[in-house]
Amino acid sequence: MTDGGAAPAAVVPTYRGPVAAGDLGWTLTHEHLFVLSPELDREYPHPEWDADLAVERAVAGLEELWNLGVRTVVDLTVPGLGRDTSLVARVAARVRVNLVASTGWYADEVLPPYFRTHGPGRLVGGPEPLVEMFRRDVTEGIGDSGVRAGMLKVVTDAPGMTADITRVMDAAATVHVETGVPVTTHSNPHTRNGLDQAGFLTERGVDPAHVVIGHSGDSDDLDYLLALLDTGVTLGMDRFGMAHTGSDEQRVAVVLDLLDRGYAQQLVLSHDSAYFSRVTPPSWRQVNTPHWTHDHLSRRIVPQLLERGARQEDLHTMMITNPRRLLAPARVEARR
Fold first, then answer.
1. Residue-wise pLDDT tens digits, 174-187
2. Residue 4 lies in a domain
3. CATH no. for residue 287?
4. Alpha helix (H) ranges present in 93-238?
5. Is 311 part of a structural domain of the chain?
6. Which of 55, 87, 292, 329 could be 241's S-S partner, Cβ–Cβ 3.0 to 4.6 Å?
7. pLDDT for residue 2 is more than 80
8. Which positions carry N6-carboxylysine (predicted)?
9. Whether pTM exceeds 0.90
10. What pLDDT, in 10s, does the model give residues 15-54?
11. Is the pLDDT of residue 67 over 50?
12. Which residues sit opposite 282 in a β-bridge?
């Protein structure tokens, strides 16, 4: 693979400002700090949620990650998952780890009613609001935070490419082509829909070297994974510790197989974990997924990979080189 058109001396936006891509270091590319539900939280607060305690927990966890060698975390919490930049900013101000914000919309079938009436050819009309929102998040900043998004996040799952999901995907592709900001996906590998995602995005001009097909590690279907790799995208092996979606034994075995086949340059590893998630709250996780934590790779999975034949060079490629390539915005002018 080439560098995918990454701009020379590229910088990546973080909560504390731009960071040179070469300084990102060991990077977790698919994580969350807080997964919330604003309407529920406002009227029906979760008994385990305390914002101040959640901030303290995240600060302690990220400082521990720094001590373990992690330097950058991509927070893929976007609208639809309760993105709260002001809350994350409180954490970012107190930790050494770089935090990268994301934009997009998390929905797997339909969007909120607002989008049914706004946009070209719709009741109220106007420009496509998803493009306007994503573009502003990337180029100006999210809300009044001044924090620019460094990743676009899209979702397709069992319902497939519905009309609303197609709108989100198309808007993300449009903003990528304009800005070069990378795209990551939530996929359902059991339906092999990463191939649909890769095809849709690349047909609209998205640089495959700046695309991650998320949750690919849920699958051990090597024919499917190899077909995805042939498109030039990167596979997100990003749910280590998430026991209810697959075993770590299977995930490790698949990574080792792909490394043996020479695909280190197209793999990234992460957890898809959160310091608090209303979807799977802390008390549930403690019982059902005790290793689904942000330090699981560093403490348990990386040693397993090395013991079973992965090389230090492989880990460096997957955790440092590939995130640097992905997060450095693609050269926009090269595709005009």
1. 999 999 999 999 99
2. no
3. 3.20.20.140
4. 114-117, 129-139, 163-179, 194-203, 222-230
5. yes
6. 292
7. no
8. 153
9. yes
10. 999 999 999 999 999 999 999 999 999 999 999 999 999 9
11. yes
12. none
Asked whether residue 245 is assigned to any structural domain, the reply reads: yes
Q: Which residues contact 262 (CB under 8 A, 6 or more apart)?
A: none
Task: Kindly state the DSSP code that residue 233 receives in the 8-state scheme.
Answer: P
Q: Tell how strand 19-20 and strand 11-12 pair up.
A: antiparallel
Domain residues for the domain of 301 are: 11-335
Instruction: Supply φ then ψ for residue 238, to 5 degrees.
Output: -125, 25
How does the average pLDDT of the chain come out, rounded? Answer: 96
The type of residue at 267 is: L
Angle between helix 248-260 and 222-230 (nearest 10): 50
- Tracing tokens 């090597």 back to the chain, one arrives at 222
* Helix or strand run (H / E) with residue 324: helix 322-327
Angle made by CA atoms 101, 103, 104, in degrees to the nearest 5: 150
Residue 5: inside a domain, yes or no?
Answer: no
Cα distances from 230 to residues 1, 170, 248, 252, 263, in angstroms, run 11, 22, 25, 21, 10
Instruction: Judge whether residue 312 has pLDDT over 90.
Output: yes
Q: How many domains does the chain have?
A: 1
Q: Coil, strand, or helix at residue 27?
A: strand
